[in-house]
# Entry
Amino acid sequence: MKERKVCSVMCWIILRCAIIAMAAGLSNCASLIAKKNTYASGGPAVKINGAEVRMQVNPQGTENGAYSFSAMVVSAAVATMEGPFRWRIEATGRTGVHQSLVVHRIHTSTEKSKRSEWYPVAKLNKRENFRDSKEQPGVSRARYEIPGLLKVTSANDGKLTILADISIDAKNGSQRRMVKFTLDPARKRADEFIFLPVELVRTIGKDWEEIEDPSWDQ
# Structure
């Protein structure tokens, strides 16, 4: 699991570095201009043992496989992002209170395509510990990325409902709940402006777990 997390963060950084490399000969600046056919939560976070729990998705495909690059004074890459998706469950708790998260079972169903599937239990039940946030004192987070891709698209499959059987351990004991996440199709923009000197400084000395990937939707 640790190796997969490192790989996923590296993939995000590689994409950003590719844009930076393209611009390096011409400018200290580069931009990623992206449209996303993705999903957004149809409700608030759910509470388990005092922690706020959310489902997040990250599009991994491109519409018609399209990427477009340009090289000007400020260089840019243009893309339309689409499914399939990386998917994860994030729990936000309190430092010194919340300890670990386990996802026991997951069921997915789609409104348009009428799919209804239980995810293989053998791939789940991996304990993830809460880690203190260095950016937000008093806050801790646990993130469990579900193995494999969620093979849906917002256009073809429509609204997505995910049932997740989750337990969270805390100092005051453990709570296990079956919770429902409703994800609605959404179109978003993922524009990002990268200033090379600042970008390099931001990542120096950080653990892989501390580098935030802004491409996750919730």
